[in-house]
Amino acid sequence: MDRRRALELYRAPFPLYALQIDPSAGLLIAAGGGGAAKTGIKNGVHFLQLQQINGRLSASLLHSHDTESRATMNLALTGNILAAGQDAHCQLLRFQAYQQKGNKAEKTGSKEQGPRQRKGTAAEEKKSRAETQREGVELRVENLKAVQTDFSPDPLQKVVRFNHDNTLLATGGTDGYIRVWKVPSLEKVLDFKAHEGEIEDLTFGPDGKLVTVGWDFKASVWQKDQLVTQLHWQENGPTLSGMPYRYQACRYGQVPDQPRGLRLFTVQIPHKRLRQPPPCYLTAWDGSTFLPLRTRPCGHEVISCLSVSESGTFLGLGTVTGSVAIYIAFSLQGVFLCGCCSYCVLGLFL
């Protein structure tokens, strides 16, 4: 695969844990932070305006939303609503961009941020809708409802995902439970044990089905809280005696030549770290029968995340060391590899 020099779009003042792209608004949303520890590293969600300038991607900061003592570890986006995983909770955020007229924006429901005051005051409420202006654009963010989504002794929400019509939100974490919530009320509609141990990833599929993967080596397909089937990769994949693999990520993607077709993709990684690590694997599955279509090795660096382009044409893989690779979804053939950072692949997924 071709190695190229990465373009640095933006350097956040905190460790980055989650990224989302809003193609309709041309926004990149970056989140992270130092957590509750008093290290001086802030926690926040940054909203960046993406533009093509002379054929190159550019990013400028529109707004910085302070999340106080909570670092955002995972994000999901629907319209102008963000679901942010923060420790044991899921926080809904709503953002809105306005075009300024002169020195003022079009009519809004709030005033500028006042001096910092004690938590719980009216000024604190204003702070959650703080404003940042850049090049005539004003963006406001407000905190909506928050709920606890994980109840293990050391709780952590690890993944959050909206369904296809954006009426439901599924969360998973270290306690192995899937919880499904109505949007935007966050009224709980499902709560069931899906895995023994941590849930690594989940994705909504056709007919309301939900696919989950966890540390118990299982990838399960659910209809509400009823188990439909489990995926069987190693029985159909490469034979590696004595090497246990677990599912790390799962995503549905459109089939480009089939408007109503969906294909499921999973990543399998070695359960144990070895000095000479075996390869990770990328697998495509039939989205209806859940039978494997093809499997390809995808390098020896441990895969940490999987993304599918909106068209379903490309897959993006990120590793724990920070490198990124692009694969053709149909053939699972690698076409691009960068060893620097994930920003260089954003253009393919806009």
UniProtKB/TrEMBL annotation:
Q: Which UniProt keywords apply?
A: Endoplasmic reticulum, ER-Golgi transport, Membrane, Protein transport, Repeat, Transmembrane, Transmembrane helix, Transport, WD repeat
How does the record say this protein sits in the membrane? Single-pass membrane protein
A Pfam family per the record: WD40
- For the keyword Transcription, the answer is no
User: Where in the cell?
Assistant: Endoplasmic reticulum membrane; Nucleus
GO BP terms, alphabetized: endoplasmic reticulum to Golgi vesicle-mediated transport; protein transport; regulation of COPII vesicle coating
- Indicate the principal place this protein occupies in or around the cell: endoplasmic reticulum
**InterPro entries given in the database record:** Quinoprotein_ADH-like_sf (IPR011047), Sec12-like (IPR045260), WD40/YVTN_repeat-like_dom_sf (IPR015943), WD40_rpt (IPR001680)
Q: Where are the WD repeats?
A: 160-191
Q: Give me the segments passing through the membrane.
A: 324-349
GO MF annotation, one? guanyl-nucleotide exchange factor activity
Q: What PROSITE patterns has UniProt attached to this entry?
A: WD_REPEATS_2
List the GO cellular component terms: endoplasmic reticulum membrane; nucleus
Where is the region Disordered? 103-136
Q: How does it assemble?
A: Interacts with SAR1B (GDP-bound form). Interacts with MIA2; recruits PREB to endoplasmic reticulum exit sites.
Described by its record, this protein's role is as follows: Was first identified based on its probable role in the regulation of pituitary gene transcription. Binds to the prolactin gene (PRL) promoter and seems to activate transcription. Guanine nucleotide exchange factor (GEF) that regulates the assembly of the coat protein complex II/COPII in endoplasmic reticulum (ER) to Golgi vesicle-mediated transport. Selectively activates SAR1A and SAR1B by promoting the exchange of guanosine diphosphate (GDP) for guanosine triphosphate (GTP) in these small GTPases.
Show the PANTHER family listed in the entry.
PROLACTIN REGULATORY ELEMENT BINDING PROTEIN, PROLACTIN REGULATORY ELEMENT-BINDING PROTEIN
Name the protein family: Belongs to the WD repeat SEC12 family.
Write the protein's name: Prolactin regulatory element-binding protein
Which gene is this protein's source?
Preb
